[in-house]
Amino acid sequence: MNFLYTLAATLLLSLLSLSSSSDISQLFETWCKEHGKTYTSQEEKSYRLKAFEDNCDFVKKHNEGNSSYTLSLNAFADLTHQEFKSSRLGLSAAPLNLDQRNLKVTGVFGDIPASIDWRKKGAVTNVKDQGSCGACWSFSATGAIEAINKIATGSLVSLSEQELVECDRSFNSGCEGGLMDYAFKFVINNNGIDTEEDYPYRAQDGTCKKEKLKRHAVTIDKYVDVPPNNEKQLLQAVAAQPVSVGICGSERAFQMYSKGMGQKMEWITGL
């Protein structure tokens, strides 16, 4: 699957040199087939083609420059940047009083491993897709809880983002955004969280299924925020377990990102 995606991306990028409207339309049709895109009307399709053409031009100009990272016509290429931000981003501003404290991790700074991959240790579930719902905060929270549960019990269980979207409403706002800290507090106060299988993700807001609140597949008793700008404690935290991270994806390059890294990619805003 990854190989096929790479071929498709390479094909699409090679066609960016075409400039006529017919060439763009041909490229758009190829892209629609690759991504399984269909539209309800010709009017909508024309609108998406216009957004696609604009993103095409943006990707081409970026990749022709001297940059250490590459953009491509990915699955979001038919969205305007405002649409992407409205439908895919959902991290709220940080609360005023984060629970920041010195992390008590066994060992000294020099004992931290040079690298660690929690995927290889079986502590990370499969990649999930939030869809057109600004619930990234719920996925970040469940990912960290899934990991620490695996480390503590040896069992990797996929947890319910939908429960957080629908039921964690004291401070978070479902598909309209939220923050991981409040999600952790919700799980603590609820004495646990249900599984993804029992309370599946629907990528939309809905009524809390209160009977499922009593199904506690996994629970936590506390959480701690890594102090900002403290690389040592971040290294200690990541060495102990996967952490919950918030990324600022408001830059247009993030929407069309493909691969690579650079110092100008200042998208990570908080942990």
From TrEMBL:
GO term, biological process aspect, one: proteolysis
Keywords of the record, alphabetical order, are: Disulfide bond, Glycoprotein, Hydrolase, Protease, Signal, Thiol protease
Classification via SMART domains = Inhibitor_I29 (SM00848), Pept_C1 (SM00645)
- Give start and end of each Cathepsin propeptide inhibitor domain: 28-84
**Signal sequence bounds:** 1-21
Q: Which residues form the Peptidase C1A papain C-terminal domain?
A: 112-271
Could you cite one Gene Ontology molecular function of this protein?
A: cysteine-type peptidase activity
Which Gene3D superfamilies does UniProt cross-reference here? Cysteine proteinases
Which family is this protein grouped under? Belongs to the peptidase C1 family.
Task: Tell me the protein's name.
Answer: Cathepsin propeptide inhibitor domain-containing protein
The upper taxonomy is: Eukaryota, Viridiplantae, Streptophyta, Embryophyta, Tracheophyta
